[in-house]
Amino acid sequence: MNAPSNAGVDDSLITLVPLKVDPSVQNPTPITFDGPTPPNFTTEDLSSLNQLARVLLSNPNAIFPPPPVPQPNERSTQVAQAKEEGNKFFRVKNWSEAIKYYTLSADIAASRPVFEAGVYARDELALTLSNRSAAYMGAGQYVNALCDADAVIQIKRPWMKGHFRRGKALAAMGRLREAREAFLLGLQFDPTAEEVRTAVEEVNKQLLALQDKKDSTTKTTTTTAATPVTA
């Protein structure tokens, strides 16, 4: 079976027919040909179109799209309240309680119905998961902190904070080069972020210290190997 063609309709198959509209509600045929009836057409060809026109003319409000449905703020309030509870416990370094409330906030944000604007859920989730990543860092759960940071980046890639959280988690796991890459990527999105600049400097110092230690170890090994054995 041949695959369906993506080509458009041939222009030769299209016939442009001039029409005119009488906005009077009383007119049973508000849409008519503008001028003589074109060849191969009859007034019956307009019957379905006139039926729709009568419905629209009898209900003027239906001509215009409905106004946007106002977003209920109850869910946003619940998300913010749970997040703020998490912030309270975060400030006193009660990591387990902070993680619990950040998780609750994220669950509420993620449960938005599909017909609500997705931007609300994205912004709320990105902020809450970023906070939870920091709480996981405080609790020493670096893998969980990295997972949340990666989720933040997936949700809101241009936001510097997700890359910063990722870098902090990677650095804590000893993956310094990857951490440096994460910080530098975050700086591309926000070159003015001082906390990220400071993090880059700290990682560079750690990498330099590791390189110095490696060079020193190599030098010691070489010197030992070159020392002659005496009787």
How would the blueprint of this fold be written?
Elements: E1 19-21, E2 31-33, H1 47-58, H2 74-91, H3 95-110, H4 118-138, H5 142-155, H6 160-172, H7 176-189, H8 194-226
Antiparallel strand pairs: 1-2
Helix pairs in contact: 2-3, 2-4, 3-4, 4-5, 4-6, 5-6, 6-7, 6-8, 7-8
Provide a descriptive summary of the structure in words.
With 231 residues, the protein is mainly α. The chain has a domain at 74-220: Serine Threonine Protein Phosphatase 5, Tetratricopeptide repeat (Alpha Horseshoe). Helices cover 61% and strands 3% of the residues. It has eight helices and two strands; from the N terminus they run ββαααααααα. It has helices spanning 47-58, 74-91, 95-110, 118-138, 142-155, 160-172, 176-189, 194-226; strands at 19-21, 31-33. Strands 1-2 form a two-stranded antiparallel ribbon. α2 packs antiparallel against α3, α2 (74-91) packs parallel to α4 and α6 (160-172) packs antiparallel against α7 (176-189). 24% of the residues are buried.
What is the fourth-level CATH superfamily of the domain at 74-220?
Answer: Tetratricopeptide repeat domain
Structural class: mainly alpha
Shape category:
elongated
Mean pLDDT: 84
Coiled coil: 193-220
Keywords: Coiled coil, Repeat, TPR repeat
Protein name: BQ2448_1674 protein
GO molecular function, one term: Hsp90 protein binding
